[in-house]
Design a protein that fits this description.
The chain is mainly alpha-helical. The protein contains 18 helices and six strands. The strands form two sheets. A four-stranded mixed sheet has the order 3-6-5-4. A two-stranded antiparallel ribbon has the order 1-2. Strand 4 and strand 5 form a beta hairpin. Helix 2 crosses helix 4 and helix 3 packs across helix 5.
Amino acid sequence: MPVAAFVVGIVWVPLKIQTAVFSIVFAGFSSISITAGKNQRIIKVLGYHRLWSHRAYSAHPGLQVFFATFGASAGLYSIIRWCSDHRAHHQYLDSDRDPYSARRGLFHAHYGWLLVKPKPGTIGYVNIQDLLRDNLVMWQYENYPMLFFLMAFVLPTAVSTLLFNDLYGGIVYASCLRLFFIQQSMFCINSLAHWVGEKPFSGNTPCDNFLVALITYGEGYHNFHHEFPMDYRNGIRWMDYDPTKWFIWLCAYANLASGLKTFPENEIEKSRFQRLEHQLEIRRQKISWGTKPEELPAISIAQFTDRVRAGSSLIIINDVAHDVSEFMHDHPGGIVQMEANIGRDCTKLFYGGIYMHSNAAVNLLSTMRVARIVNTACQVKSLNSYPGSSGSDGLGGPLVELS
């Protein structure tokens, strides 16, 4: 039908400006009724989604009627069917029981899940008793086919005909193409919103993305939404593009909505911080930090001095022996300074005795650890016989040797 409508529109039906404006406005009513209202199976933004699916606020009966009727104009099934699938999507996110799991591929999440009837029991169970007790929801469910036909085709065609004398434009643009674009926009919440963007609150498939928010009438801040589904907002910052949030706020200002739920800012920041910690830990594990001192083999001062006598280029810093042989020629102070301190305890020298080394130098030093020194309560005196040593030259601590 969309392809036929495109062809017919291009070839035979010119687009009148009045019909175009009406189609956009009517599409806005349809989209708002999905995102802001109570939830159905696919995704309806105002009415189906945030009101009925997640109970993020309470709506005046008149506003609920608006959502139920204009929500049907989007052709995304009844409130009960849409909400049951969407609640299952949240409860069983990214699992085999998620009706439109993004882990099964972009096409499946966007449209493929509608083409295959799921086997009984494969979709996760959810509680929709609250919807079954709602008279308006049940009325819409029982009359959905007729309501869909009237709101999706008859009403937009009638308005275009009576007000703009544009019968064919009403059929092609206000009805068929409007319906197609709304559905593709809503399907992107299941697909693109789980594939493109950042994940500041959780590591599951939902993402936050401004461009997706533009396409989906504010539903693009999906990582936040899945972490805090009962919050009436998707874009929590005032500048985040979320017309559904603004519409709900205006309805509350006009006493058409109440009980707007928001998660405490502290809890939001807590999740953001924990996500950053997790991401940093993943990055930390990819970095070589050197062997931890407690995991190093233990050697005595005597063993340390024996290794130095045998030609190893070792120094002691913080009771840890470091092999600096590969760094001798790269040291900014020159190889002479390094050679003069082989076999010495250079802790004070390293931490400001000659130069207060940078954090980068401390990190580099950690990669040179070879052993931890035990039995440090020993007599320390100068030795002049170590390879590369010129005796006590004032650059480092004294050479060490057991008495």
